[in-house]
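lol ok so funny story. i was supposed to be doing the assay writeup but got distracted and ended up predicting the structure for this chain instead. priorities right. anyway since i did it might as well share w the group, maybe its usefull for someone
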Amino acid sequence: MGLPLLLPLLLLLLASLQAGRSTKCRSKLGYEVNQPEQLSAPEGGSVQIPFSFCHPWDLPSVLSVSISWRWKQYHGETIYSTTPPFIHKDFENRLSLNWKNGWSNGSLQISNLRREDKSLYFCRVHLTTRNHGKQEWQSIPGTNLAITPGLQTNARAPVRPGSSLPEAP
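and the output, tada:
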């Protein structure tokens, strides 16, 4: 087999080896979690906090991946976990994770936002690998979520001038 025929085969082999790897990391550590530094959403509305992560291990050597979220501070309370399944009592029926095993990105949705949801949120990745055991890391700065005033829905009939009774239709 001549060199011109061997070169495309080598390139194909290299491409197939890279396909089993997670997305490239920008950090020198080889693993990271990325999420926006700041988001805002109206009270009563919902917000999606996007995240992405990467690691240096080939996908065949990764036995399991799970995602959890903390709030308030870096070592704060866990509010959501895929394994074991958990949702903090303050967020019952308001959290959902748009992520599937094998994906390197997704988002946490918080619905029916409350003023007290204003906080820092941290995505944490948990991996079990064949050769390196359990590994965990999370976003260092997290996402600072601001809650803005929601729309007022005090629908009232117009009041007649000088009266406390509504105007007739």
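The CA atoms of residues 4 and 33 lie 41 Å apart. Residues 3-22 have pLDDT under 50 and may be disordered.
back to the writeup now i swear
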